Amino acid sequence: MSEREEDSLPRGGRCSILGKPNAGKSTLLNALLGQKLVIATNKPGTTRSSVLAVYATDDPPTQIAFIDTPGLHRPKSALGRVLKEQATAGLEGADLVLLVTELRKPKPGDPRRGVLDREDEEALELARAAGKDVILAINKVDRLKDKSKLLPILAELGKREEFKAIIPISALKRQNLEGVIREIRERLPEGLLYDEDFFTDRSERFFVAELIREAAIRSTALEVPHGISVVIDRFTDEGSRAIIEATLIVEKESHKGIVIGAKGSKIKSIGIAARESIEEFLEKRVHLTPFVRVEKGWTSNPLKAREYALEIEGS
């Protein structure tokens, strides 16, 4: 078989996306898919549940099942431990790992330190312990005006045998995404995994809850988002419109006041932003009624952390 014929063979597999909080994993996944599927904000800890979504193309026939995972860091609470479990579980069944890090200012005399830090090394070790090949994506290179400064960083990282490929990218600017797809595809087994109409393993209710949480995260102070979760109490599809009732869970009375706002102004703005996002996602009109409830200290309670972090739906 010629190299050209081999390049045209159908290939498919699973690629787990790992990295520390705020490295841009979810932004990258959305960019690779060509649409917004998973929520992404500039606040750490936005991703809580692993999401599988399939990138597919016919030329050449390719299916890459990306698994978006929570940011890896040393857990300090029950919620943190649940998120680390989710990230670790995302490695199960993966054919390889895409480790996403971000470009930072190098330390004098050590160009490698311009990219990898302790959290990156721990994520790398997790992937290696699971026996996975690792591709390193260095995100946010659009911040670097002089791209020649990338060369010593790439040269230093290129000495490390752990990385099968090293790709500088900008998820936000959609730079070099074709390089990511190419390097992943080359390492996938022959054959496709899914029916052509399969896209994600998550339900509409899950993504609706995520869009509401995203609106709340974007509208509140840094301390509050960590303790916000969303439960869908009602999801009725009437064809031309959807009726949704959802409860925002917070862990402090003071946070409830922040989320509701003066005379209900904040929860109203959250509801409007969430409704607009949900209407775009569902492609229909939406009637959304949000509520707020306090579950004191839920992020420190193992049972509650698992329930609310994974956004288990109401009846």
Could you give a short description of this structure?
The protein has 315 residues and is an alpha/beta fold.
Description:
- The chain is an alpha/beta fold.
- It has two domains: 3-185, Rossmann fold; 204-309, K homology (KH) domain (GMP Synthetase, Chain A, domain 3).
- Helix content is 33%, strand content 23%.
- It has a six-stranded mixed sheet, sandwiched between helices. Strands 7-8-9 form a three-stranded mixed sheet.
- Strand 7 and strand 8 (241-250) form a beta hairpin.
- Helix 3 (78-89) crosses helix 10 (302-309).
- The mean pLDDT is 91.
Radius of gyration: 21 Å
* Secondary-structure element pattern, one letter each: HEHEEHEHEHEHHEEHHEH
CATH class of the largest domain: Alpha Beta
| Secondary structure category | alpha/beta
Q: Compute the number of structural domains.
A: 2
Main sheet overview: 6 strands, mixed
CATH architecture of the largest domain: 3-Layer(aba) Sandwich
Average pLDDT for all residues:
91
What is the percentage of strand-forming residues?
Answer: 15-25%
CATH-defined fold name of the largest domain: Rossmann fold
Query: Uncertain runs with pLDDT below 50, 5 residues or more?
Result: none
Distance between the termini: 55 Å
Strand element count: 9
